[in-house]
Amino acid sequence: MQEERKRILQLVENGTISAEEAIVLLEKLSSQKESTPPPVVPPLAEEKHKEEPHTAEPIFEEQKQKRKTTGFEDIFGKSFNDKEFNKKMDEFMGDIKQDLSQFSTRMTGLVGAALSKFKDLDIETPFGEKVEFTKTFAYPVSDIKSIELEVANGKVDVVRATDELVTVNIFGKTPQKGTQEETITQVTENLSTLTNEKLFIQSANKFTQLNVQLAIPEKHYDVFIARLLTGSISIEQMDAKLIKARTYNGIVRLENATFDHAELQTSNGAVEARHVKGDDLEAETANGRIYIDGELKEVEAESVNGHVVVTTTSPEAHKIKARALAGSVEIYVPKTVALDGQIFTNFGKADVGLSDVKLSEEEEQFLSKSLRFTKELEGAKLLKLVGESRTGTVLVRYTLQ
């Protein structure tokens, strides 16, 4: 018993246990001495005991183990050993990896397309003096059904014309080769062409900066396409079966437009579609906000890093899918449609502020919140709605109309 007391005191001196813990151990030894006579230790066992002085008693091992336990383990230890918890965590991390993989694949395609364009750059005289110029082209609107622009550097603005001519106003800046007159002639020679009712505007020198203002009369066009390597695209009062606008670095804006199908895409910048009307609209950005507001039957909007806001006032709306990896999602729909909706979020809030819907399924678990809701309305179009955000709130409301 005396040897055990010495061991306890030695543990206190070494800092292995505290004084309070030592008192508890000493009290246990005293109680054991009073209740149980000391065992008779055979000589051989006593010698063996002396040969192994570092062998700890069970009571000391228990105390050491207790001392090693941290508060973090006390709180979360059960969760870490929970198979269901680990399964949910694995599923969440798998979803994140899948999202990033999908976005990475798309962005790789965009970057690859951008690099392929750079291979065609004219790098003979990229620096030195610049020549500024203006050029105007005009065509009867009756001769044009489709319009396509491809500009490496600059911006595109489409506005409504006040006459019956499609007018192309170009403000440019380009590296000088030879005299100013020779440089301007070379750059503008095939800048705008009209073939088979298709107007095509293209930058011949990829180091040429072109700011294109396109004034178009009111007409229903077949196709309008605008592609930029870097720069913004703004389209107003356009009426076409198909509208496509893509830039790798810049804002894409569509306003007061009518279409059957529209695609708006940028790698770095916001996407806006205001006061638009169409059957199908797709919007995508890797870094930027998406804002869509109009009379739309089908909408798909996706942002990697940015908020997504989608509003449709169409009573014929039948599909909305809005998704953000890092950002909130807001969806506004008319009250005159039937609904079949699902919303998901991992770290935000799932908020369906519709008083007349039925919550058919509600689930809230670690790293996962989901709501499913339905609304039956006789004679109304069924709108299927999906809203998803990894880190932000997903909100669904009725429009004010």
UniProtKB/TrEMBL annotation:
It holds the Pfam family DUF4097. Residues 3-33 form the YvlB/LiaX N-terminal domain. Residues 29-57 are annotated as: Disordered. InterPro entries: Toastrack_DUF4097 (IPR025164), YvlB/LiaX_N (IPR053959). Residues 144-342 form the DUF4097 domain. Residues 45-55 have a biased composition (Basic and acidic residues). PANTHER family: PROTEIN FAM185A, PTHR34094. This is DUF4097 family beta strand repeat protein.
